[in-house]
Amino acid sequence: QEQLVESGGGLVRPGGSLKLSCAASGFTFSDFYMSWLRQAPGKGLEWLAYISARDDIISYADSVKGRFTISRDNDENSLYLQMGSLRVEDTAVYYCARDLGERSLTYYFDSWGQGTLVTVSS
Amino acid sequence: DIQLTQSPSFLSASVGDRVIITCRASQGFSNYLAWYQQKAGKPPKLLIYAASVLQSGVPSRFSGSGSGTEFALTISSLQPEDFATYYCQQLYTSPTTFGQGTKVEIK
Lengths: 122, 107
Prior knowledge:
Chain A is mostly beta strands and 122 residues long. Helix content of chain A is 0%, strand content 54%. By secondary structure, chain B is an all-beta fold.
């Protein structure tokens, strides 16, 4: 049974930084594209970034480009999101998600973590 | 970016009802659409992809249809565990975007 567990959320001041982690288990992590998405309180879903299975293709949403960095460690079965220049509007639950396609990008997300809350406030 | 508008935004229904949620896109595409179910405090769950393909393990009372600018998620007979918020997602253009959600509550 595949499992994704996020960690690293918390309270951070505007302009600050935070690094989220996502530990994967129950599947061959290195075979799948992975994404980060977020959901602001009471709002809908927003895709933020994806990284290819082999770590050679990365894409970001405009809302986080230049501020957030996605990375992965296939030896550690882990996905990361380094967040910088944080804004109040970045407050959200952040999810890591696995792409449905094996070794290919589909943008369908078939497995999600439980999420970690990031609160940006002074 | 493609905008997705779901209707209704809120739906009150009874167990056993047939429920249809629609998702309208600001520009047309073929079948690059998915549906997710999200229960309170939980992550989304993939129900349907490629507009009409049922994800493994999802009950057959869920079905998806449509193409162009109008898509639909149908629940043939609403069950107590189906009360949740449903989101559509388009993958035709990057970035992938989601509808605003439809909350299905018990009448």
